[in-house]
Design a protein that fits this description.
Layout: H1 2-11, H2 13-20, H3 24-34, H4 59-69, H5 79-88, H6 96-105, E1 134-140, E2 152-158, E3 164-170, H7 175-189, E4 197-200, H8 209-218, E5 221-224, H9 234-243
Parallel strand pairs: 1-4, 4-5
Antiparallel strand pairs: 1-2, 2-3
Length: 244
């Protein structure tokens, strides 16, 4: 074990045990009572600093390259484009890679193009403080009595009270049926013009012209879900999830 302990700092514990025919398990079991290694490995000497290359740009030359890169005509150009333009003019300041190093040293190596910064966007929100101010409607497909048959359930919900203000079961999903359904529902509740807002997704019956013209005649404001937002009509969707 003493031989393994003396040889381990040079070749490692595994090689020392293999060369001396000692099981490593036996060595590790007795390791706590053997004490530290007799000669610890000396730390590696610090690396010597790299000398500056003889052909490196001087401080003044680097400042001149940076001034050229800051010119108004080059502010939005990549160093490769700047290099090509300077060569066309018969000028050579440094290599393209040197331009990148100079920009990186000044923390200017990011995208140099002018990009549009979008302002903070707040998601549109509909608010109801009393009944018959905001309705949400949608169409779902309950299963029929026979396989591969469905009905179309038209449902209107009052967002404030969660009350079902109107519903209809049909065999089709069309704009004319939606127009008749919404018109009967609004007239049944006697809602004055300019008070009600009806929200829906962007299905074909919801954005159809018969529905739009009818709601305009009744003085009802209509809103739709945002494009590519599948969960922007949560009131009707959560209700239909319960129905199914």
């Amino acid at each position: 074990m003493d031989a393994v302990l003396a040889l381990a700092p040079t070749v490692g514990i595994q090689s020392a045990c293999d060369s001396l025919g000692v099981a490593r398990a036996s060595f590790y079991r007795q390791r706590p009572i053997l004490g530290p290694f007799p000669q610890p490995v000396a730390p590696a000497p610090p690396a010597t600093p790299r000398p500056a290359p003889a052909r490196a740009l001087s401080t003044g030359e680097r400042a001149g390259v940076l001034d050229v890169l800051h010119e108004a005509r080059f502010q939005d150009c990549a160093p490769a484009a700047v290099q090509a333009t300077l060569l066309d003019e018969g000028r050579y300041l440094c290599s393209t890679r040197a331009m990148y190093r100079i920009l990186a040293h000044e923390e200017e190596s990011g995208d140099r193009r002018e990009q549009r910064i979008h302002p903070p966007y707040q998601t549109a929100e509909l608010l109801a403080t009393a009944p018959n101010q905001l309705w949400s409607w949608d169409i779902t497909k309950p299963r029929g009595p026979v396989k591969w048959t469905y009905f179309y359930l038209y449902v209107v919900l009052d967002v404030f009270s969660r009350y079902v203000t109107g519903w209809m079961v049909a065999t089709r999903e069309t704009g004319e049926l939606a127009k008749r359904f919404l018109e009967e529902t609004v007239l049944k509740h006697g809602i004055p013009a300019g008070q009600l807002n009806i929200h829906a997704d962007r299905g074909r019956p919801m954005i159809s012209k018969p529905v739009a013209f009818m709601l305009a005649d009744l003085g009802v404001t209509k809103t739709h879900s945002r494009p590519y937002a599948s969960d922007d009509n949560p009131y009707s969707e959560s209700q239909f999830r319960t129905l199914k």
